Amino acid sequence: MSKFYITTPIYYVNAPPHLGHAITSVLADIVARYHRLSGKEVFFLTGTDEHGAKILRASEKAGREVSSFVVEIRESFRNLSPALNLSNDDFIYTPDKKRHWPGAQKLWQKLKEAGDIYKGKYKGLYCVGHEAFVTEKDLVGGKCADHDEKPQLIEEENYFFRLSKYTAEIKRRIESKELLILPESRRNEVLALMGEGLKDVSFSRPSQDISWGIPVPGDESQTMYVWCDALSNYISALGYGSEDETKFLKFWPADIHFIGKDILRFHAAIWPGMLLSAGLLLPRELVVTGMIQVGGRKMSKTLGNVADPFELVEHFGADAVRYYLSREVPVFDDGDFTQEKFSQAYEGNLVNGLGNYVQRISTMVRNYFDSRLEKPAEEEILKAPLKKGEVEYVSVPYFIEKIVFPEYKKTMDNLELNRASDAVFGLLKELDGYVQHYEPFHLIETDKEKTRVVLWNLAYGAVSLAWFLAPFLPQTSDKIFDIFGVVGKPQSEWNTFVVKEHKALFPRKL
Ligand code: ME8
Question: Residue range 101-121: average pLDDT?
């Protein structure tokens, strides 16, 4: 069985999660579920990034001891999984001395052994929001444009990582697509950056200034730079540096790191540099998402313009939120979030669209055929073809197999999740058209046998929707399989449908 390792970023615990974190985790979950359903052994990792100045400052602001402050917020990130039905196999957090520190420290040791760690003096502007040094050109009116605050001038002695040494090799890997970066525009952006050459990175801070972190191996007076610490989670979680590295040997390299565009540079430059220095394989793919915005500005904890995923789930249900995040927001571009847009999408596509379709079909099967529909003979099926414009497809199953499935598979494999979801909701539209065309609610009065064929096609369509939606809307998908009596049955056994009475899939909220 082939393996598939997929990760989300580990999120900062300076505040509870917002919809921006939810979107990355939901998209990664959809991909994880898709690969699991296609028979791969999947390892899906998420977690939290809990060290550094940013977290320390947030705990001070809250008047709390940092070690207990992080636990509380970590739990709210952990709770995203049951709330949004995320299927992560593991959850890593950086203060975990047993699971995370040995990996981070082993990796540091490897860089050191490679001669890539050296001591130097650094003077620069540090943005705590970014947890990175910034340059004058990143500032607007002396402030960091993303975080709306003045960076600190820092002058200190610390350790450096010789990233410059790896510029050419990293560039080659990205150019050759051995390290694939999606979408193309982000790949080009990174390559342009490489053109200027990568600079060495300050990789530690004096412990007296920032003690909340992992001590540098062999020099307790220094704390590891939070990005060096954080990036290593992708291998520490697999047991790298522990007594048992079996999982690491099995799952590394990562097949996909799902990240937002805000952290691309760290993943496309520093992380490959660290791995090359340590003689480890590079991840296969970085999938870089756009940002959810509110009124044109990135939704962020620092800016305080956040939408709470838990509230949305509470009101609309997990699948409604998953639907919105995977279809109504572009994966690779920025997209705006408004409550009105969310409600409209919910009412339009879920209540009136998918929910209504399933309700109508199941009700007709119950009322006209005593809840049971056997598969009609092939020649009967041919009597109710599906018309799409000028083209006539012999049946609903045929249309699904020849038109919908290839488009779905292609777009899923290319991680064009919005388009894959469009293909599924496009099928729903065709099925609605099929209902309108044959009007089974009238046809039943004149031709019961043909109504049986039409409804069988429509029930097959409903179950196919459930199959396609399984990675996107897992609960809804399960419910539809159950309503039509085909739980656990492969497609080849979707012959007889025994339909159950059920509640609305998506209750009306307006
Ligand atoms: O950067 N829209 O953590 P972070 C879409 N700890 N996605 C968003 C978003 C938005 N408005 N806001 C956040 C860190 N995200 C580091 C990562 S990884 C080794 C360390 C998502 O809490 C998006 O995936 O700031 C972004 O890259 C990530 O959350 C940043 O989360």
Answer: 97
